[in-house]
Amino acid sequence: MAPVAWAYRGQYRIEDDWSRRKGRSLGLTPLYLQDEGRIQGLVYLLSLALRVLTLVEWSVRERLRQEGSKLQGIYAGQPGRKTARPSAELLLGAMKTISISVVAVDGQTHALLSPLTELQKRLLELWDLPPDLYETVARGFPEPPRNGSEP
């Protein structure tokens, strides 16, 4: 009986994804849109965002399962707590400390990137993204516009 209970608890449930749309950052809160096309577009956009969240979460969970490991440092205020099933919200929350500042000095553009934490580097690895992804993005900023009237 115990294996059946654990299988039930660990199964994928579409209701979990749809619950993300209620009252969270991805929530379908009341909006005052009158154009049917805009309403439909917003729902499509939120559906796409939900798919991305699900993919982000699933890919990390699957890699952790394949490795037989757990992710540590994902819970704020609990650096020693480990999990093999982090939520997408926790994963993306760990990445929100990344910042980049772009400064133009004497006609040259400089991008200053905050250093990645070990957890952030580990997440890039779990997502099969290159470890120098953010440095590459920082180097790839275009030159500022020549017209000084634009911000």
Distance between the termini: 65 Å
How would you spell out the order of helices and strands? HHHEEHEEHH
Count of discrete structural domains: 2
Strand content: 5-15%
Strand order of the largest sheet: 1-2
The major beta sheet can be summarized as:
2 strands, antiparallel
Shape annotation: flat
| Class of secondary structure makeup | mainly alpha
Radius of gyration based on Cα positions:
20 Å
Relative helix content? 40-55%
The total beta strand count reads 4
Count of helical stretches: 6
Mean of residue pLDDT values? 80
- Residue windows where pLDDT falls under 50 for at least 5 positions: none
What is shown here, in short?
The protein has helices spanning 2-10, 14-19, 36-67, 88-95, 118-126, 133-139, and strands spanning 71-72, 82-83, 100-105, 108-113.
Q: What do these coordinates show?
A:
The chain contains 6 helices and 4 strands. With 151 residues, the protein is mainly alpha-helical. It folds into 2 domains: 1-96, no CATH class; 97-151, no CATH class. The strands form 2 sheets. Strands 1-2 form a two-stranded antiparallel sheet. A two-stranded antiparallel ribbon has the order 3-4. The longest helix is centred in the middle third of the chain and has 32 residues, at 36-67. The model has no long low-confidence stretch (mean pLDDT 80).
